[in-house]
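re: that complex we talked abt at group meeting.

here r the seqs, copy pasted straight from the sheet so there may be weird spacing, ignore it
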Amino acid sequence: MSDQIPVWRRYLRLVRPNATADLDDEIAFHISARIDELVAGGMTPELAEAAALERLGDLARFRAQTLNVDKQREREKTMRDRLESIIADASFGVRQLRRSPALAIAAIVCFALGIGVNSAIFSIVNGVLIRPLPYRDADRIVVINEGAPKMGPGMGRIAAAELMDYRELDGKIFQSTAAYEPRTFTVRSPDGTLDRVPGAVVTGNFLRVLGREPLLGRVPATWAENIENPGSTPGSLEVIVSYSFWRTRLGGDSAIVGKTMPFGVSSVATVAGVMPPSVQFPIGGVGAIPADIFVLYTLSPAVMARRGDNYGTWAFGRLANGVTSEQASAAVANVASNLPRRYPEFYRGPTEQMVGNVTSFREALVGPVRRPLLIMLGAVSLVLLIACLNVSSLLVARSVARQREIAVRRAIGASRSRLAQQFLTESLVLVGIGGVVGLAVGRYGATLLTRFDPNGSLNGYNIGLDWRVVAVTAAVTGLTGMIFSILPGIAGRDDLQTALREATTQGKGLSRSGLVVAEIAIALLLTVGAGLMLRSFMRLRSVDPGFKPDHLLTFRVAFPQTRYATHPAAMTGQHLLAQRLAAIPGVSAVSSATQVLTTDPWWITFTPDPAAGPLPEKVPVGSNNVVQPGYIETMGIAVRAGRTFNESDIAGREAVAMIGETLAKQRYGGNAIGRRIKQGPPDRPGEWRTIVGVVGDIKESGLAGEAPPSIYMPAAQIDTGPSVGIVRSQAYVVRTTSDPRQAIPAVRNAVKDFDPLMPISELAALEDKLSDSIADRKFNMFLLTVFAAVALCLAAVGIYGLIAYSVAQRTRELGIRVALGALPGDVRMLVVRQGALIAITGILIGSAGAIGATRWMRSMLFQVNPLDPITFVAVGSTLAIVAIGASWLPALRASRVSPLIAMRGD
Amino acid sequence: MADTPMELVQGTLDLLVLRTLAWGPTHGYGVARWIQHITGDVLRVEEGSLYPALHRLEKRALVKSSWGLSENNRRAKYYEITAQGRATLSRESSTWTTYAAAVAKVLTSREQPEWAK
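got the structure back, here u go
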């Protein structure tokens, strides 16, 4: 057999090992040894050969098996070798980093900041915008919007009675439609205190539309009946509770289904089910609080009777199979536009024409938050970019210093790919450490951010580390690693001789300067954005709300018919409570109204006095506030003309009203005292009231909003009609001489002494409520400022690094200059000028970019022009100062260079 | 007995090769001859199967190989047992003998079970 191995193959084995040939040699030896033995024993050579081969058995199979084993062995060896070389590179990289710890720490900090901050924001974006909502096929759920044409169907809410009209689309357009209204329920604690708990009333098919089943229990039978017969009132009260409510207030009792829990002031409700932990409704969108208790919404005749002027119900439906949301929009618009025709007596004035559409559920929840979030994400990506540029430039500098090392290694045989592997590994070590630290920073950052978030608008979203965040962070980390590990490779010169000589920095210098210019431009962009937000926020804070919010306490209570049977009884009760509150030491004034600082004013239609001018074409709307005497004074609202309500404005006397000054100007030509005003459209019967006073406008819905036309009526005179129930809920305002927050316990006690069964809600200082209304802007501003600060720091570090390095490179040149007579001041100027040049280039480029980019921020700004020159100039100067400051230290060092040392050293 | 070569389970062959090499380094042919000699040619292993066994043992680092010259100056690959090989050998041969003793006990027992009357 050995004769069959071709000679040329044998000689090849001198160059590289050949497993096949070796095996054949082995076997060949075995065969010839056996043949020799048999022949020595007396056999003929031919028989011996046959016998030897026979003893060997199935040679082909064994040969193949052996070659297989050898192949596997080769493979494993190669993998082990590669792993060892990578580990060697990594440990080499770590040693290098340890030798220049400043560089390592700087790079890792840059990365950790950039990646961490990105990770945090992306966690939030992921939780809010990307992660699926906790409802089945949530993209098939849509919200039904409707409204009058001038307001556009952006209102998102319907009148509860209209649900029946929209239900006609069930089966064709929707699988089913459900309605929801937020409510606050009273719940007794074991110790007797009454608490107000956020909740909701929902139609029976509510869970079905959401597509989720309760964790414990099931949808009660009474709810199921309600689907068919929406007006039916169940005999007993069965509720479904949220998971967190079950755990905190019901003790997580696993046998809770069927048991009763305290509900309302003095009764109970049966717990029919508990929601799963991840399912909240509504999700904390802007202003929405997840409900803890769900109660059935009965569409009683009273509810059905209110159409056309009562928009407080959310309607949403699950699209039927195969129906697109455009089709649903068209169908809803059709139903909406038919409403005035079907119920002409209800839809008058502003609601004469109705329009409608549907929007996706997520859009309805997330819409207002989306743009700011995406802007934040953009901003934070810019920070990461700066961080990467910084580290890039750091490492390019180092690679220039390593030119010699690279050239020598290449000369002794390292292949390009081996060097590339080395650099890649070193970079990856750096980026890897930075990335891991960044991930940790990101996780804690996201948690911190949600804790700071003012409106709790991020509640309910699952914000945490999930695979998407990890994947994105890993991708970003990897990308950064690859991008700047290529740079030293590109910068590496092949020419050994040139490299061994003085390393030329011309080419590298330009590219490094380019990096730093880019950094500065981006930092400028971010800082301009932050500056604009800052100015906007300052403007907002200085807006005059129209009243004096300092030293004011407010809370809300209700005087239900069960305990205050008649209107006079309710009025007496309200007065008595006011007296009790006024008796608290430190209280200077007390009053109450139906609404104080609300985002949800009670809109009414009204008719101005025909004697004041022609009636407007469309029936106007205004915000109605039913108040007790002394309200205007307690709030500190300015009185522009006439008088305010007093004790003699009661039922039976002349009906009076006060109006706001804008309304007076618009409808009464500024001369409203003595004229009349009526609630409701012109042709509907209603009481005409005489205007006795004109007061200043107040910003009812927070500082950022407009002041609506306002109408005030005395509570004592609203004793009949549809508004009589509303008067029973009063928001009290209490003016104190010192810090109102300290009066909170005294107020609580006063109410309890007055009526122990009366729960208090929304007890807070008015100032705090006002700042809540602008709190989300404050939060955005805070975030953006943090990013800008980080960006500025990074840019400063970048400039410092560049100038310091350039000074080190120019040591000899500077030494010569000093030797030729340059003063230290001249040298300083030289260096600082270099820094300033880079900074100015960056500032100019950045400003150009900012001019283009800030227009996207318009919606987040308040009365500030996106191209506000003051901000641009201020930011530009700040950056210039930072740049010069960062160049100063190296400049100082440069000016102290001794010419002897400079020229001697290499 | 000498007509049909007995099939050996793969692990057993490895064990025999290891034991053989424990006496001293040799080549594949030497292992074949030794096994033939000791078992009185009862265990007629298909000799080709020694080679996958030897290469496997080398892959597991239980033996190591080197090229050398045989007694009559021919190029042959010699195998030598390693320390790890010796350890494996002692461990697995005690397992094997225990197993073999147990099998022998069942096969040669005179005791009858209850259900065999």
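couple things i noticed - Chain B is about 50% helix and 15% strand. The mean pLDDT of chain B is 86.
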